[in-house]
Amino acid sequence: ASIGVAQSDxxxxxxxxxxxxxxxxxxxxxxxxxxxxxxxxxxxxxxxAEAQAIASELRCIIRDKQxxxxxxxxxxxxxxRISGVEALARWPQLSSRSVNAQRFVEVAExxxxxxxxxxxILDKACASARNWPELRLAVNISAVQLNNPRFVERAMxxxxxxxxxxxxxxxxxxxxxxxxDAERAKQVFKELQRYGIKVALDDFGTGFSSIGYLRxxxxxxxxxxxxxxxxxxxxxAELAIVQGTLLVARGLSADVTAEGVERQDEVAVLKLAxxxxxxxxxxxxxxxxxxxxxxxxxxxxxxxxxARA
Length: 309
What we know:
Helix content: 40-55%
Radius of gyration: 22 Å
Structural class: alpha/beta
Strand content: 15-25%
Number of domains: 2
CATH topology of the largest domain: TIM Barrel
């Protein structure tokens, strides 16, 4: 259970107001995970009003299917070709406000909209990815989605509606999300993997990483966070983390992707270390689906020209 606490001088607030504040603090505690305690702060009222406004607009965005999807390519170290894309939800540009993905996902989770939002993102991502049969599609999921007993059923229905083979789909989830209900997550991952869908641990190194943790969940892929990758050239300890992760991953038959690669010298070190894939601004920024199609068309034209030469 989560607990909200509010204290006040009787002259400042009556019983109903104190209960209201405690209620706000309780929801704040719930948003931070299970079994938390939170004391009321006046800033919570401002946060709540903002969250309610975002939730109201988000309902309309979901209803009208206006959420935008950008795709960031992932490159294989074997041949340095694009091997997949990660779908990234973006708040509509036509909106009067700008909301980053972390914020609107948090609001969706607390407002009971995350299932509908997640399904919309998967549906729109699959609609684009069906045009790129050679690429893997990675989609981020929330731990709250895993609590829906119909999550796997609904995800499979969407994937099948676009005639995409399940081996091309990969769901990414962060370490911190898993801590909410590890047993439930483990159960859902097994079910997804039985259907051929891959499961990736995203942002590895930012949470409570441990070898036992990796072994428990049987991830198909481990994505090492930019906070570690950015220091591999300057800090031997960070490079050792990458090398150790790769060693463990090989033992678990998992692939390893380095996230946030921004420099040529990082590419060289990470390839030498044994990363199977690289992702970051050095290669490609997130882009609309049309740009991915253009990249693939250009690559195909070059290969055909090379074959004729």
